[in-house]
Design brief:
The complex is a heterodimer of chains A (316) and B (229).
Chain A: H1 2-33, H2 43-52, H3 64-83, H4 100-120, H5 124-155, H6 160-168, H7 177-193, H8 221-247, H9 258-285, H10 294-313
Helix pairs in contact in A: 1-8, 1-9, 2-8, 3-4, 3-8, 4-5, 5-6, 5-7, 5-10, 6-8, 7-8, 7-10
Chain B: H1 6-29, H2 33-54, H3 61-86, H4 88-91, H5 102-127, H6 131-153, H7 157-178, H8 184-212
Helix pairs in contact in B: 1-2, 1-6, 2-3, 2-7, 3-8, 5-6, 6-7, 7-8
The chains are: A mainly alpha (316), B mainly alpha (229).
Chain lengths: 316, 229
């Protein structure tokens, strides 16, 4: 019992510690693909450390929402980490506190406060970026719902640990058409929610074209560090959900042993690295979509997820 | 071959069916002429692979012939014919104009796919419950309906042709599992039919575009008193 609580806390520490590393490796690989040298893979750690040691400047027109949001954006991915399989494939202490829909809502709570805070300072770029983020968010919601409903209907449960058991073992289930279609739909969803190309340019500096970056525009010092870290943790959590529940549950710890758990850490990082390679290829070969073409992109994701649902339900 | 047991073949066939369906959605959802053509080529390759897989286990020479005929004619010959008759027009990045915009088209395409699965369920019970029929028949029917929708909603001649070709692909995909012993002559006849169709439409479209300036079928609604055409 105490061991399960400890493992759960270890999961949280792993997410907090390795989320900037994943982002650092992604940025470096994107630069390497373009034959540039790229920043060091530990650069996001250095950025966060630097920002924590700077002064914070807050606009005098900002309300309590602006001051509260960095904490919420930092904490919501941590809550979701307690619910999903990161290192183990058996449920831990907090696993039944919320299911996948609950996890989705908690992440949406963070996004909601980030959007409100972006409007709070009366900076016009913040408001513009916030309304675009909401547009992408509401178009991505149906895709989330259909993907979750499909996997939950088949597994007869909405808890990610149980879904993972039912859905992916035996390994022959991997190549079913509904599974492949769900993977494609979820990858398109990750691209939209994490603000990657083709939906949004994560390394752009033009405020007039920002969609997801605008939530961190007005922050400085500690607030900026928390927003940055929280954004990186949200990406890590989305990848964990994708890799551990839908793609490959292999490599997770199956016993109560602490050694087993510690060996699961490099394995999950390896799985993420493989996915990052695919993501780098996608990001480097596509161009950013025009704003109103994003609805076509997410419409295609929706259709693919519904096709997965009907392929699974009608052939059962 | 012990590697390709019937269950492995059925799983690969299911995967191919999924890719066929995605290619059919891609034909509906693509904005550019060249992308649409590429999705059609992908769909034809999926059809050929499915024919190959289904012809493996109770070894059927007819299905292997279907596979070879499809590989030669659809991914290779049809784009070549279109390029020769229509020239650069097919291969430049021209946008397709449709009556309904793409998100609406995607939603309607989804409804059509669900309808195809719904319609195919009693048919599956009638023809026998083998695994291949459960995969191929609804997806083939969905391909036909999506091709029909594409044909109806596009304004210009060449994109409409792609819709027609997609319909034919869908019909074949369902056909290889319903009538696997169809003689090779019938397969060849249908394939040549499609090839000649592409050739004729290509030549005609080029002539119409040269004389009238556009191939938008909405504008070709009235006869012109023009002796030169």
């Amino acid at each position: 019992m105490v061991q399960k609580i400890l493992f759960n806390l270890l999961q949280v520490l792993v997410v907090m510690a390795f989320a900037p590393l994943v982002t650092g490796v992604l940025n470096k690989l994107k630069e390497m693909v373009q034959s540039k040298k790229g920043p060091s893979i530990f650069q996001p750690y250095k950025d966060i450390w630097k920002l924590f040691h700077k002064d914070e400047v807050v606009s005098k027109d900002a309300t309590w929402i602006f001051r509260l949001t960095p904490y919420i954006v930092f904490i919501t991915p941590i809550f979701v980490t307690l619910l999903i399989p990161v290192l183990t494939n058996y449920p831990l202490f907090f696993a039944f506190m919320g299911d996948m829909l609950g996890g989705g809502f908690i992440l949406a709570l963070g996004g909601f406060f980030a959007t409100l805070a972006a409007v709070d300072t009366a900076n016009p770029y913040g408001a513009m970026g916030a309304s675009r983020t909401r547009m992408v968010g509401f178009l991505a919601e149906p895709v989330f719902m259909i993907v979750f409903f499909t996997v939950s209907f088949v597994a007869r449960s909405t808890i990610p640990y149980i879904v993972q058991e039912q859905w992916i073992t035996p390994p022959a289930n991997f190549f079913e058409p509904s599974h492949i279609l769900l993977l494609i739909a979820f990858i398109m969803l990750i691209l939209a929610e994490a603000g990657r190309i083709p939906v949004d340019n994560p390394s752009g500096h033009f405020e007039i074209a920002m969609i997801d970056e605008s939530k961190g525009l007005e922050y400085s010092g500690k607030g900026a560090a928390l927003m940055k870290w929280g954004g990186e943790m949200k990406f890590f959590v989305l990848l964990c959900i994708f890799l551990n529940v839908l793609v490959s549950p292999w490599g997770l710890a199956t016993t109560n042993n602490i050694i087993d758990l510690l060996t699961a850490i490099p394995l999950i990082l390896l799985k993420m690295f493989a996915f990052i390679l695919i993501l780098v290829v996608i990001e480097s070969s596509l161009a950013k979509l025009r704003l109103f073409r994003i609805s076509e992109f997410l419409g295609a994701a929706f259709v693919v997820s519904v096709a997965a649902m009907i392929a699974r339900l009608f052939t059962l | 071959m012990s590697l390709l047991s019937p269950s492995v073949i059925n799983n690969l066939n299911a995967l191919t069916g999924g890719l066929f369906l995605i290619a059919a959605f891609g034909i509906v959802a693509t904005r550019q002429m060249l992308g649409c053509l590429r999705f059609y080529v992908a769909q034809s390759v999926a059809l050929a692979v499915s024919a190959f897989l289904l012809g493996l286990h109770p070894f059927s020479r007819h299905l292997m012939e279907v596979c070879i005929i499809t590989i030669i004619s659809k991914p290779i010959l049809i784009p070549w014919v279109l390029k020769k008759t229509m020239g650069k027009q097919v291969y430049t990045r021209r946008e397709i104009s449709q009556v309904l915009n793409i998100p609406t088209s995607l939603l309607i395409a989804m409804v059509l796919a669900i309808l195809a699965y719904f319609l195919a369920t009693p048919l599956i019970h009638a023809t026998g419950d083998s695994r291949a029929i459960v995969v191929n028949l609804p997806i083939g029917l969905a391909g036909v309906l999506l091709g029909t929708y594409t044909l109806a909603v596009r304004r210009e001649a060449l994109p409409q042709l792609l819709g027609l070709l997609a319909m034919e692909n869908g019909a074949f995909f369902a056909g290889i599992v319903i009538a696997p012993d169809l003689p090779a002559i019938a397969e060849l006849a249908v394939t040549f039919d499609v090839l000649i169709l592409a050739l004729v439409v290509g030549v005609l479209t080029k002539a119409i575009a040269k004389h009238i300036g556009t191939t938008e079928v909405g504008e070709l609604a009235s006869l012109k008193e023009d002796a030169s055409l």
